[in-house]
Amino acid sequence: MVLLTLLVFSSSFAAGWPQAAATDLRGQVIDENDQPVPRAEIIFTLDSGVSRTVYTDAAGRFDFPGVTSLQVQMTISKPGYFRIADRKVELTPGSNELSLILNHETEIKEQLEVQSSPVQIDPDTTSHQESLVQHEILNTPVASSHDLQQNLRAIPQVVADSRGNLHVAGARQGQTEVLLDGFEVNDPATGAYTVHVNVDSVRAVTIETGGYGAQYAHAGAGILALDTQSGDDRVRFGITNFIPALDFQEGTHFGNWYPRVTFSGPLEKGKIWFSDALTIEHTFRRVSELPGGQNIDEQWSGDNLIRVQANLSPQNILQGSFLYNELSDPALGLGPLSPLSTTTNNQSRRYFVSVKDQIWVRQTLFDVGAALDTGHDNENPLGTAPYMVTPSAISGNYFQALSQQSRRLQFLGNMTTRPLGWKGAHTISAGWIAAGIDFSQQAARSAINFYSAFTNTSGIQVEPPPHSTLTDVATFTGASALQVANTQVGGYAQDLWRPIKPVVFSIGVRADWDRLIHKQVVEPRIAMNWVPLDDGRMKFTLAWGEHYQPLILALLAQGSDQQRVDQFYVPPPPPPPPQQPNPNTPAIASGAPRVTTFITPLNGLEEPRTYNATAEWDERFFTDTFVGASFLLRESRDGFAWESEFAPSQPAVTLLLQNNRNDRYIAGEAWVRHAFGEKAQIEVDYTRSRASANEVLDPTLTQLILAPQQPGPLLWDAPNRFVSSGWSPIPIWGLLASGFAEFRSGFPFSVVNEQQQLAEPPNDRRFPTYFSLNLGLEKRFQFRGHEWAVRLTAVNVTGHNNPDSVVNDVNAPNFLAMSGGQHRAVSVRLRLVTEK
Q: What's the number of CA atoms in the CB half-sphere (13 Å) around residue 360?
């Protein structure tokens, strides 16, 4: 229920003054757990019909002086919260203070609880933001509704590459800061987004890709923030997809099963609350391109997030959380080109624990917190048979066993003041962060045997060995255990300044330092909003900022790993016809072996940085139609890349980690979003972009590319991308129809030869154009006093061929053969919507 409290502090007036002339209104917006709700939109409508819009500050406070009416109507909204609509308030002459409670959206449908629009035009927000609130996450029909990363693909600036890795605004993994309830949860070793949480526990996901403030320490390209539920005074229970499925392909199997459970409520009403969100995932995957009996991958995984909030006093809120992730995949890597024997048994787990204390001193907010994040990952081959690679296939058992551990211990503190008066209004914020990170690895590697295709006397290429000829044997020498550690320290100060009503400046600076490179980076950031109209329906934004990019320990660790030794061979001379080659004929070594060494010269490296420039226009037409366009230019400088003066005849190759990589992402985006009442909306977005680099190659010890660095598009470059999603009730059996469509350019890939050398410029070819259309129908029904919802989703309705694997060896007999990708499919989701 929405609570509205009116407190009258003063009602004294000088005799003869008009009563309305001395009426002031101020107050605070809080949520159901007494936490302030910042940037909530409040529209006041006076008796005269004149409207004015104000926004709450960081402490949830608002101020409306000089009210010219003793009766006003208020509408309060924020994405992800139920809206208070057209609430009448009687004022008294003098000072009036309101306390407003804005409830988070939940699946509990009560009278007067109306969903807010997912978009608002906030005059004080200078960043380019795109978000998904809870009802959007639930309503968008994605291929796997249990996987939050599938939902993130509905955000226009988020692209999933051919391996499923997410890239925000054309950036590399690790250049986006991922936050879980305010704490960084990027993988400590790789910087990637690998953490999993229960989809039903996520209140909102927000992406910021330009113009964001100095409070973000490691956001070279953007921020991905997850906000999860913390419970309230009502006991809530939800369950989704609890009925196991069977799969009858190639016999009877336990099929895909993704049960999710959420449970929350009070430990002490009005003071202490908890929430628990559990996910169990069983994925049954069949690779149709492989032979029966060797084409099944059954993966088990799970996650559990526990959150507790205690209001120690009205000015002191303590929060804590614990997240556990676990994965077991006995056939990791199974694919059209990777048969069962070449996969690995992968076992991984991750622990994340955090605590945060928020304290209000008068109207200044302080928060301090700490978090520990640890990860363990083990991969083991399925046997010891020789690992053999041909131009179009691999066989044998995988050559590498890995055991990796990573850890991050982080501390943070922030302070935000109320608006201060001096030549306008100033909101000052400042803070600091410190983190200790370490990564360790142990590896055991056997040989990799490379073969070429053999052409018989009929002119037909056949594979694999013994019909092929040996071309290269790669072995590994040196110590295989390594450890890398780093310490990061940073701080910032920022001022949100409104010198005059239509103009807002955000001016900030932060400084960061890390122990490995021993150099400090100072990063200024500035942004400006112009709201030309009094009704706040239009906003123009300009922003520029320098951003520090944190060091990726897994990349630096390659300089402490083993050496690779490649012994190349020349094919034996062919026998005279009509004789066939003898597979037992020994291969002939082609000169001395080549030794490849990775070196990380820490003393000579600089801190990588990015420079982001943004321009944006937003406008609201009528009540619920939003249109806009934005431009983003991001230039990453002094990026790390492995470089060498490679020549085929060299007996030794040294790859040095250098600061010569410059990435460039330029994008223009236009969008339209419209809400058709409370339960229907549509969004259409088009992005024209280019993601490129002057050095695109990323050689590793196990996947060596024998070529000098060259420019080209990045692997996730999608020059044209169209995304649309929406849902609406339809007058048939009370159904809710939903849809999600994505159309984009195909991703680039490189062509190599059997000597592991580039045969063409890097990333010069592309997969076919990608198109996918998902349609869903949801029906709600009552059963045993509960409301349930069942949704049937048709995935890739058109059956468009969207391959994600390609034979890119120019010497392969099936060169450019493509496979994989999401085929046409049907999924069912059953969930409990409300309890009694």
A: 17
